[in-house]
Amino acid sequence: MNIEQYITDIQQRFPEIISTEVINTKRLMVYIPKSILPKITDHWFNKLQYRYIVVSAMDSKDGYELIYHYSDDETGWVMSLNVMLAHDNPEVESMTPIVYGIEWIEREIMDILGIKFLNHPKPERFLLAESWPDGDYPYRRKIRKGDR
Questions:
Q1: Phi and psi at residue 77, in whole multiples of 5°?
Q2: Predicted local confidence at residue 141, as pLDDT
Q3: Which residue in 67, 90, 76, 62 sits closest to 21, CA to CA?
Q4: What does residue 64 show for φ and ψ, rounded to 5 degrees?
Q5: Of 86, 99, 117, which is closest to residue 45 (Cα–Cα)?
Q6: Which residue, among 81, 92, 83, has the nearest Cα to 28 in the 3D structure?
Q7: What is the pLDDT of residues 83-110, one digit of tens each?
């Protein structure tokens, strides 16, 4: 199956997908609403046996952007799920019950950006000291779009 066939297949399997983008010769970005993150993660990790790489996160002008990176080791493709969270509601379901290795990075993202991972098995601080002030997230932008 080539990448165009793969994109058609995944869009038929998950019609809620917002869009897809072939980033380069071996990287696909799939933009999804947070509501289907558990279903597509289960499909990629458990059914297709994609290898979990890492989750990256940032505070962008449009919201908090989470990117879950997986590898299809059979084809060499890096497959990424991109989820945008609203600044006024930064919460998403934890993927730890599906991919146990995600636990620590979700805790790190909680610490630095204040994103809440619903149903996380251990929602405790990971990087920041216990004395760090509650509600102060070091990677959040201090100035938002429209503040100028």
A1: -80, 140
A2: 87
A3: 67
A4: -95, 125
A5: 99
A6: 81
A7: 999 999 999 999 999 999 999 999 999 9
d(CA 106, CA 17): 23
**38: number of Cβ within 10 Å:** 16
Contacts of 11 by beta carbon, 8 Å cutoff, 6+ apart = 17, 20
pTM exceeding the 0.90 threshold for the entire prediction = yes
Could you read off the pLDDT of 110-128 as tens digits, one per residue? 999 999 999 999 999 999 9
DSSP structure string for 29-81: EEEE-GGGHHHHHHIIIIIS-PEEEEEEEEEETTEEEEEEEEEETTTTEEEEE
